[in-house]
Here is the input.
Amino acid sequence: MSKIYLSLLGCLLLLCTQVNAQDRTITGTVTSKDDSSPLPGVTVRVAGSSTGTLTNDRGEYSIDIRPGQNLLFSFVGFLNQEVKSPSGVTNVVLVLDELSLNEVVITAGGLTAQRRELGNQATTIRSQEITQGKATSVAASLSGRVPGLLVQSTSSGVNPSYRLVLRGNRSLTGNNQALVIIDNMISTSDILGNINPEDIDDIQVLNGAGAAALYGSDASNGALIVTTKKGRAGKTEFRIAHTATIEKVSFLPQLQKGFGSGTTPDDVPSYTPYENQQYGPAFDGSMVEIGKPIEDGSIQTVPYSAQNSREDFWKTGLANQTDFSISSGDEKGTFYLSAQHFDQKSTVPGEKYKRYSVRANAVRHISKSLTASFNTNFIANRYDRSSDNANAYQNLLMSPSQVDITKYKNWQTDPFANPNGFYNEYFQNPYFTLANNRERSRNDYFQGNLELRWNPIKPLTFIYRTGISARNLSGKTTVGKFTYSEYTKSISGGSKTDIAGNVADYSGFTTQLVNDLIAEFRTNLTPDISLNLVAGTTFRENSRKDVGVSANGLVIPELYNIGNSLNNPIATEANYKTRQVGLYGDVRLGFKEFLYLHATGRNDWRSVLAKENRSFFYPSVDVSFIATDAIPLLKENAVLESLKLRGGYSQVGQVNLGNSTNLGAYQLLSTFSQAYGYPYTSGAGFTQNNTLVSNNLKPEITKGFEGGLDFELAPMMVSGGVTFYKTNTVDQTISVQTPLSTGYSTLLTNVGEVENKGIESYLRFTPIKTANGFSVEVGGNYTFNKNKVLSLSESANELSISTSGTNSRIIAKVGQPFPLLQVSKYNRDSEGRIIVDGITGYPATNGTFSDLGVTNPPHILGLNSTIKYKDLRFTVLFEYRNGHYIYNAVSTGYDFSGAGIRTAWFNRDRFVIPNSSYLGADGNYIENTNIAVRSGGADFWTDGTRNTTIGENYANSAGFWKLREATLGYDLPKSILSKTRFIQSATISVQGRNLFIWVPKSNLYTDPEYSSNGSDSNAVGFTNLGQTPPARYFGGSLSLTF
Amino acid sequence: MLALLITATTSCKDYLDINNNPNNPTSATPELVLPQAITGSANIASQYNNYGLHFGGYQANAGGFSGFGLLFNYQLVPDTYNGIWVNTYDNLQDYKYVIDQTEGNPRLVYANSAAKIMTALNYARLVDAFNNVPYTEALQNNANLTPKYDEGPVIYQDLITKLTAAIAAIDAGTSSNALNSSSDPLFGGDMTKWKKFANTIKLRMLVRISGVSSLSAFTTAQFASLDKTLGFITDDAIVNPGYVKDKPNPTWNTWGYSTAGALANSSRIPTKFAFGFYKGQKLVDDWRGSVIYKNFAASTTTPVNQLGNEVNAPTIVTNYSTWYTGTFSSASSIGNALGVLKGPSMGQPLMLAAESYYLQSEAQLKGFIPGDYTTSFNSGITASFTYLYKDVTNAVAKAVAPDVAAYKAANPASYLVNIALATTAAQRLEAIITQKYIAVNMVNSDEGFNEFRRTTYPVTSPTGDAYNNIASLLSTSTRADKLPSRILYPSSEQSLNSGNYKVVNQFTDLIFWDPN
Here is the structure.
């Protein structure tokens, strides 16, 4: 910027604030009533004239008026205030505008708008709500709070990942998770999972593609706009806080406690001391031997009665979180610095997790017209956990309950706990499994962005942003070498084979670079018509690299280095890079502050597509109408404070070519790779890989309508709203599975359409608010989503997304909701009775899959309440989900082992299958009242065709009620704190999360929120033993501010 | 800003042209695909062997394991052994790529012909396992996503014609791009061996359908036109791309030891039915028995069982696969041996010379081709001993002739060993097929199962003891022999090609050449 230009600018500014010599000067400071902080940028206007000024960074103003004139103070988010005939020093205190319509919120592109201007559904979650439950992940704290948002914790353990989906699944195999924006830069959901929740100021949830359309092809899934805290001018604040949280297993699968070890044949159950299966005789309290004699001849003896060790195996977890932050600033700028240390031991023995986070956010006003700001955040997390939790859990279930498994922790020193002497002939000591299979991994996240905001003339602002999000990861998985003693091998034959040991080491990075340039022009065309024009461009580059090496078979035990191997290491490498350019415009026309028309258009160019399909455009329009401001009758109504009607249409394309690892790069051409052990010394050998790609892949397009209203009522401060939406996603980019007889197993192509319809609603009110400081606020939100697959490929009306053996699968099926759970069922007669064999009484599977239902909840209800009395604050949050189903892939752990409750439902006696029939001599099915199963023990329950491969036995409603959060906080009275002189405020709180879960009786197994396919997979609806039992958390915090 | 936008849009092209795959090639020469495909077929041969071990009555459960379920009762599901279908079509796609890339190019006629011969071998194996399979509409990629199933006999006839054409193409070819040990891990570029191999596959297929009356005209004509001058393989057709301990032979890796030196599978031991052909219950064969089975010597005990018997089932010998007769001292020190599990670097047989001789013997016995069936039969026994006496380097490490003579002498009254003692054609056939069953034990066991289904040999007695009953003790089969007659079509076809998928019964539906 040249000096000439600067002085020109100065002239312009001077013109705006001409001074009349005859006037007298009024000065003063404008502060906020809320926290007494000075308010910069407040418009100070002489009533009835065009003269005006703004407050400076200290909230100070100076203006000349003539006698008798009044001053008007206005500032976004605050109620206007008029001061009549001011004189001398006039300090003004502005009151926050409680009417949420006037609230200023951040919208797509980091632009701001008053809520009244928005034509789409948006929800703001404030820092209080995010941090009060002390959830370690921001995602966890959003559960049950936002209409239209499904937050799914897909597993247990440390730092579980969350799946965040707005308005249902649009894409069948592509990404359906909401776009994450942090400080106006596109970010990733794993950064959201690791960001320090205490750093967050608020989160703006844009439910639909329309609201987020400016983000282009990433926005079809809606967006979460996270804004981190900034320092405040004129006030320096130190905050230190500590939270300790205890974690206890809250939901254990139902297990039988009547029978100990034994297996087939089971006509008369017999006790087997070293057996894993639990089909032995009923417990009788007598002393029995367990295991085989160890090498010194000794053998263990225990009472033959149920122990509680399968419950006691899970530990009490403990997490400690320490927070420190400084917030400060003056008229030239502000800063916010924070640090957090989090340390957790989970319920799984030996599982540990640590997270460190530091952040610096700063704003500097370089000149009147130029502001620079930056946000930086460094997060480091460290995991130390078992890589084989699923097997450890299975081994635990393979422990008959007369054995107190918790005695076998010291497998290195205790001969009975060591694999050589462990009582169980076929399954390992779960403590050994956990200890011998480890994964230590680390992630360093860095996120930084810089923003320059230049305001050369009043209506025009240029914003330039550049940012980087980087993740650097590495880790090591190890399997310890174990060689059994000759003695053990000699008495155990083939069931004990040496563990060769292995080690794998991996590292990689992801980098995202973003450059945005935006020009914004805000003006009033006439006193009644406002215009807001935005043009912008964005450049983005994503890259990723992964390198891994592994070696199988260790030479020296416990030396976990790739070089310590009998074999050559195996190495892998993968590199991905994608780029994107976007060009967009945004127009908002306002009429008399009650009618707003808004339109956006964006064109994207994506590197991952073929040249001819690379460029694509999508528009959106929305309208907002404030009925209470437009219609005088409503305006004067004392009950109705505000009523806003809104609606919009949008069209957004999503490029769905890959996943979060490959970023969609290089998917357009089939590839070759070495196979069947190649390369050998004889040379190289390549195979054609099994993915076929259609030659004209395009983005999938989501077209969406939404309409709704928001209202506020004066009595009991009611606010509420409802939104109806409908989206249709066409040209789905799907890897259609093809029979291998075509030569390929998948075909990547554009086919199919998915429709989502739904309702999002919320209601908040304050039924009680008394003068002595007692208040009760109640809020709720309800979401209904109904989706349906309208079409798939020409050749198939089903698309398999995930399978669990022959028992169950998750598919997309034309005419059905997605994802659809199918299970194998019993052979049934026309009356629905289970057909059993006329001689053996055994049922059988019909061998085919039948529809069970959708796996995403159609109904989600969140209920919350805040009760305040003076300095006490109690909050509670419930969530309900229902209408969906889940399949638990656990038959080996529960029924094959005999640990599960089902196997004892008939007390291991022969029984008649309830509601069954058999084929009579006349060819009709006869009600079965007397043909009992040939065996009610192992021969029945462990058998595939009779029990364990019948999927319906392990499927159930995934519905639940959860007490998500309850907190009680107490602010120490100022009277006490004032004696300390330096503590400004102190808060003590206790809080609990996931305190209770209520599930239908049919759910015998686990938290139905879990998904064994992980958070990135659309195929929710399966659990297995990899998800250890869910836990409840409760803890206490102390927070001090200086 | 405008300038920036202009720069942006004009430089977009270069900015966005970053789609060259840095991870995998997007094309490959046929010479790089062919060896991988051949090695793949060898791997699949090992998978067929596993399936044959189960249904052909070679392998039983060891003590210490339970939960075998359908392995015992033959209540098969579509997943049972469906890998052989899935992997074969995957493998066939690679041959198709080689054929498409080389077709009509005289310089690449050898690679083209080798790919066609291997394609025929793979389809023939598929038909033998599944009967009707996708053939004419298979491997059409996008063009046909639901290929129809062709009839087994039709496929067989076409394959035989294609093999004839492949032999002719090699004869006509003067390829400058000869195959070599790098591009041909089967014969190292020896095209005569390829032709003999093709001729032997033809012979196998013709013998297999020789009893199908509706094909008798075709069969007779094809036998007549078989190139007897060219002849058939006289040495084992063994694939070895350079297997080493890290990248071992697939059979070794399945039934011997893992790359890290751990015992690969301790839940299986030999059946008494198969073992009885060595240990004296049916035949005395100390020579082959002692190189195949651990602890075969008289003073020790080889763990054997009947499939389905869980009462006092013996466990394996500590640290040892029952089919490994070398020395294990630690995970890092596993010695090479003779027999069926020679060592990690042994080659993988696609077809044994012994099988070639037994096929010739049967064709001679039935008068389809000229020659003396007795000579071929005896050559078969010698070839079987020869294979088992080969070490990992494919060198014969033990004298064969004296042991063959001793074997004959040790079974003086058995026409199964001394075919001259057989008095009827049925007995002669029984001898040929029984010796073939013994020869392919743990090598190409699927051929043992195929020939059992076709001929009912070796003789089984469902009510007999474990040495004489080929089937599982817990068999629910409705057949006289208590075995399944076939496996089911895979679940992937059930869900992805449902229009053509057929529900079949594993006891009553037969492969077209199976009269039993």
